[in-house]
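Quick check before the chapter quiz. The format below is the same one you will see on the exam, so make sure you can read both the input and the output lines.
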Amino acid sequence: TATATLAGFGNPQVSFAATADSGRLATGNVLVLSNQYTETIVDSFAVHMPGLTFDSMNVAVQTPTVAYLSQYPVVLLFEDGLFANAPNVGDSVAAYVLAGGNLVLGTFYWQDRSDNPRYSNESGWGALEAIDPFTAPYGSEYRYDSLNTSSIVAHPLTQGVNSLWVNSYHGGVDAKPGTTVLARWSDSCSGCDATSTTPLVGYRIEANGQRIVGVSVYPAYPRFSGWGGDFYRLWENALGWAIAASQEAEAAASIPLSVLRSHPAPADTTGSRGGSGGPGGL
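Here is the expected output.
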């Protein structure tokens, strides 16, 4: 079990103290949203991330309300196949984030982004596209790639992530201005920024400290073979670091000691001077 050492509300460099055997940081409840295969996340992630619990909603036709989303410190959103309800889901998730929620995005979210040139029938994600961390010049790649280890920036999101490879279902994104990229794939993608390789993980911080993390690999990969390395650790880091923003917000909202001191407890009028055996006891 790991404990977070909070470094101030909204500080992306929050540090974590972890036990030597695990080094893990994630505790909390996650809501998984997708139009398909949410059960893969609930079943496989829970086994490998014992500090997290998972609920899910299929959003192919349902749209979660902001009130419902706000029960969770973090939402994990991805898709598998384009679907017409994506703009409604995106509007609701964006409102949840702006109200204080935290978000992790995974492949194939970017295939439905309105700037993806590969499809003529993408629905877009509504208001969520204004605050997500990556654009979609390609959406997803369907070929082998691996983590560029020389690109890794030390951060809680990359802690313990030393290798990752996939045969497909990854990448296809560029980082927006204002997004901090912490690790990249080894190759670039068709139509992507030719000056650098494709981002694997990056984040944005909203005005009140909300964290939005993009991970450009398919989170439901455990349905298939053809992947390996620190896949689960990367996702656990992303979810745990996003959850930590809610922990910081709760800490910032707690009553300061100075306030408590300005409201002393009522005087004891019973005549008692302390319990037997304790300090001041009779």
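If your answer matched, good. The chain has five helices and 14 strands.
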